[in-house]
Every structure is written in C-alpha cells, then in structure tokens.
Write a structure and sequence with these properties.
Shape: elongated
Bound molecules: nicotinamide-adenine-dinucleotide
Strand order of the largest sheet: 3-2-1-4-5-6
Structural class: alpha/beta
Distance between the termini: 52 Å
CATH architecture of the largest domain: 3-Layer(aba) Sandwich
Largest sheet: 6 strands, parallel
Number of helices: 17
Number of strands: 12
CATH topology of the largest domain: Rossmann fold
Order of helices and strands: EHEHHEHEHEHEHEHEHHHHHEHEHHEHE
Length: 440
C-alpha cells in the first residue's frame, strides 16, 4: 500500500460524517496517513464497531487499518456530532445520497447533517472547513450546504468527491486515480487538498460545481464503457468472434482509443466513416435480432447535438452569417456527411443570408462523391463561397466557427472583432447551454 502509517507532516483534526463505505474508508485511511480523525454516524453499531477496532463491513484491508489507527489513538468514533466537531477543523460529509423514487437523488441525509452542523455553529468561534465527499448534483454544495452555512463567519465549503470502488476501496484511496477539490476559497481548497499531500497524486483544483460534475461524468463514463464493451461482446458472440480479444486489442491503441482523443466537448461528428460504420453495425445487429441500445443511440445523439447548434444559430440576431469551415474537420476537403453541410442546408432553408470559407475547398475543384454529396444538399453552394477568410470577415456581421481554425486563422478572426459563435470550442461551449427542457 505505498504509504507508511502516520506519514503526513501536516496532520489535521478531521470529523468524518457518515461511516458507510465511503466515510469509514475515508476516516480510517486519513487516520492511517497521520491525521486525527473522529467518525460520526447515527448508527450505533458502526460507531461501536470502530471503537472496538473493527471495520463495520467487509472491505479488503480495512479491518487492519481500523484496528491499527484506533490502537494508535488516531481514529475514534461517536454518535454525537457535537463531540465530532468539538476539536475538528475539517468536517468531511460522507452521508448517503440514494435514488429517490422518481430517479432524482435524495438529499434528505445531506440536508439533515447540514442542519445539525448549522445548529452547532451558533456556539462555535473557531473556523470550520466543510468538505462534501458524497456524490451530489452540480449546484447542491452551493444551495444545500453553502447557503445555510454562509451566515457564519469562518465557515468554508469545498467539494471533494470520492472515486473509490467497493472491493478495492482502501487501495483506491491510497493509490488514487484522481483527486479533485473544488471551491472558491483558495485557502480552504488548499487545506482539504493538503490532507492527501503524501499520496502519489496531484490534486485537480476546480470550482465547486465543476468538482460535482466531474464525479457524475466519471461514473457516467464508466457505465458507458461497461455497456459499450457488453454490446460489442454480445455482437461478437453472435458472430462467433472472441469479444474479449476484440476489446483487448481495442485497448492496445492508447493514441485514439484509451486516450483523451475524441473526449472533448465540441461539434457533432461526421465524415465518411463514423456515421456509415455505426449504421452498418447496428443494421447488421438488427438482422441478428440483436438490440444494441447504446450503439443505436449514438447517431440520434449526434443529430440532436447538430440540431442544438442550428437552433442556437437561428436565434442569433445576425443578418450576415459567415461560416468558417465546411469539411467535417480541419485539414481535409472531405465533405461526405459533414455536419456543416447539414447546418448550412437548414439555415439556407430558413432564409438566412450566409457565406462560407474553407481553406481546403475550392468549389470548382470538388468532384466525385464529395461533389455529389454537396450539390445534392446545397445545389448553388458555389455562389456562397468566399476565396479568403479576409473576404468572409469583411462581409459577415457574425462568424460561426464550425471547424478548428489554424493559429493564423484564429488570430485573423480574433483581430476582426466580429462576434463569434464557436461550435468547436474545446475550452467552453456556452452556446450549448440554451436547450429548452423537453416539453417546456
Ligand atoms: N459506495 C461507493 O462505492 C461510493 C463511491 C464513491 C462515492 N460514493 C458516494 O458517497 C456517498 C456515501 O456512500 P456510501 O456508500 O458510503 O453510503 P452509505 O449509505 O453506506 O453510508 C452513509 C452513512 O451515513 C450515515 N448518516 C446518514 N445521515 C447521517 C447523519 N445525519 N449523521 C451521521 N451519520 C449519518 C448513515 O447511517 C450511513 O452509515 C454517496 O453520495 C455515494 O453516492 C459512494
């Protein structure tokens, strides 16, 4: 387990609120790192179990750590929150956030524990940093924790989501794959990040809401990966192919597959391969009577993303829209299934005045399947082309970036001073926030 007991040089006094899987592992492991920890739970069995030096549930390696840290006087437990907060400077909330009947998450335990903390703050003069380790929807820390606690001086709130997995929770804690601390008070964020300073990980310091969403994004990603592997495995089995070998081989590619490639929010995908191959795969699977809901949902998801972009551009008050990029991505002149072609087609159909520039596309030189694809969508497209970006920027009163610009083009766009809607932005995509809820 890499880290020796009591290794931290910066020992803190911590109350861990909730001694379930997350709280108990957090409490015991932080005590193992050298902090002085008191675990609080309304469940007397869990508290007694810790006081007896035993883990309240089975988790490999946990019992030994609980036993050692209790014996060393660094881990204790109590039912009373007042006792827990009395000497602690940091409180880590690890209560449950189970599913409500309608699928929403239940914040009952969190609200209750925050109420209890609030009652105790009236009589407290020392500062308290409250870290939320429970998984909560973005905005919850602000609304449910920060709002009631903000009436008290010297109380700070940070988000510190937990990423451990049951069954390997102690190992995951000691050798973390990710450490996220979110909040707006730099000192409080640093204080919570410092709890883990002797672990082999660099903390990611972000905002409260970002930290909350990172946790959901991770779990959603894990779930999508499992479902993806299972759908490929199912298809493989039905084709008498070894699905494990297919997925093992897929994982060997750490440039395009197991990598940050394709994992940035941006514009819809297109081109001559991804849409075609997804269609073929799901069509062939349907002929085998196989339902592959995840793979079947990918093209509709992509179309929905494109439609969001079209709706947003439609709302722009601009009279002359300049569109940068026509091919499905930069540095190619392939127009087949380019989402920009669909975007232009729809905007023209709705009467928008627009012109387009793409450094690699000269209308007179397009031929073959490229030409057929383009002309069947937009027959008079050649009249809409500008030969240079300068020309486009001179004509337009608003620019839509539909393809990643080179650094020279980016500088030209920026110095034009034109308002821009950047569909491919990999930094932030504010233009995609405005989608109305279904039925709204
Ligand atoms: N279990 C996991 O693998 C895992 C991993 C990462 C994150 N999470 C998230 O961490 C949170 C906790 O998960 P868990 O599995 O440990 O939950 P859990 O249900 O096992 O434990 C929650 C504990 O909180 C205690 N509690 C509730 N209200 C309390 C109060 N007012 N005062 C004191 N104690 C109180 C309960 O008695 C219980 O022991 C959840 O938000 C979960 O989504 C869980």
């Amino acid at each position: 387990m890499g880290v020796e007991p009591g290794e931290t040089s910066d020992s803190a006094r911590i109350a861990v609120l909730g001694l379930g899987y997350v709280g108990c592992v957090t409490a015991a492991c932080l005590a193992h790192l050298g902090h002085t920890v008191i675990g609080i739970d309304r469940d007397e069995f869990k508290v007694k179990s810790i006081l007896d030096g035993k883990a309240p549930f089975y988790e490999p390696g946990l019992e030994e750590i609980v036993q050692n840290t209790v014996a060393a006087g660094r881990l204790s437990a109590a039912v009373s929150l007042a006792e827990g907060l009395e000497r602690s400077e940091i409180a880590l909330i690890c209560v449950g956030t189970p599913s409500a009947k309608n699928g929403n998450l239940s914040l009952e335990q969190l609200r209750r524990v925050v109420d209890e903390i609030t009652c105790l703050l009236a009589k407290r003069s020392r500062s308290l940093t409250v870290g939320i380790r429970s998984t909560v929807y973005p905005g919850t820390c602000e609304e449910v924790v920060l709002a009631p606690l903000s009436h008290y001086r010297n109380v700070f709130v940070v988000s510190n989501p937990e990423f451990l997995r049951e069954g390997t929770a102690v190992k995951d804690f000691m050798e973390p794959s990710l450490l996220v601390v979110g909040g707006s008070d730099t000192a409080a964020v640093t204080r919570v990040a410092a709890l883990y300073s002797c672990l082999p990980i660099t903390p990611c310091l972000v905002t409260l809401r970002t930290a909350e969403l990172i946790k959901y994004a991770c779990n959603a990603f894990h779930a999508v990966k499992v479902a993806f592997a299972n759908e490929i495995g199912t298809l493989a089995a039905n084709l008498e192919i070894d699905g494990a070998q297919v997925m093992d081989t897929l994982c060997r590619d750490s440039v395009l597959n197991i990598s940050p490639a394709y994992l940035k929010p941006g514009f819809a995908f297109g081109g001559s391969c991804l849409p075609k191959d997804l269609r073929a795969l799901t069509y062939r699977a349907s002929r085998l009577d196989l339902k592959l809901p995840l793979l079947e949902s990918v093209l509709p998801s992509n179309e929905r993303h494109l439609q969001r972009a079209i709706d947003i551009i439609q709302e722009l008050p601009a009279r002359r829209l300049g569109v940068f990029g026509l091919a499905f991505k930069e540095d190619t002149d392939d127009l087949r299934e380019s989402p920009v072609v669909t975007l232009l087609e729809q905007l023209i159909g709705k009467g928008r005045k627009l012109r387009v520039f793409d450094a690699h596309i000269v209308p007179d030189r397009i031929y073959g399947s490229n030409q057929r694809y383009l002309l069947s969508a937009i027959p008079h497209i050649s009249h809409l082309f500008d030969a240079s970006l300068e020309q486009l920027l001179g004509w337009a009163d608003h620019l839509v970036i539909a393809q990643k610009p080179s650094s020279e083009f980016a500088a030209q766009i920026s110095s034009s001073g034109l308002p821009v809607t950047d569909l491919v932005s990999t930094v932030r995509a504010p233009q995609f926030v405005a989608e109305p809820a279904a039925g709204a």
